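User: Last request for today: this protein with FE2/S2 (inorganic) cluster, please.
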Amino acid sequence: MAISISLTVNGAPISASIDPGTLLVQFLRDQLRLTGTHVGCDTAQCGACTVHLNGRAIKSCNILAVQAEGADITTIEGLATDGALHPMQTAFKHCHGLQCGFCTPGMVMSAVSLVQRQPDLTGEDVRAQFDGNLCRCTGYHNIVKAVLEGAEGMKSAGTANAAKNANAPATA
Ligand code: FES
Ligand code: FES
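Assistant: Here's the final one, the structure of the complex with FE2/S2 (inorganic) cluster:
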């Protein structure tokens, strides 16, 4: 039996009919064709599927699409503005914070959420908060550098404290 859901994805209102068992990541990738959100494990361990739900980073393989009813979802495709990369995307590019790039969308989404909650970060903070994001290429050193540089970029752009009062973990 199909069920109807309505939500906002990257600023666009979406209404769809889905199987109630559809995971949010399946809905984003298979139905909306937003394939920048990756599936690395499907068991809430790797963080490749991280998106923002009402401004908080969540693992989209870990919730059903129906649980996002009425929510505001942002995926990696929604970060750039008018073709200009988000400061965190720019930092990952500048710092070579990727190798194969498979984990990168989730890393970037987690990083943006982290900086919004905690703009002033140390490398230790980043390493501790990213325990839910795995990079199979083990490119962690440059990823940490990228997050720190991205945090400075977000502060300069005035986007570093959008969710400062949210007390959610970086990834759920
Ligand atoms: S695919 Fe969701 S955490 Fe790995
Ligand atoms: S860059 Fe390859 S998995 Fe992270």
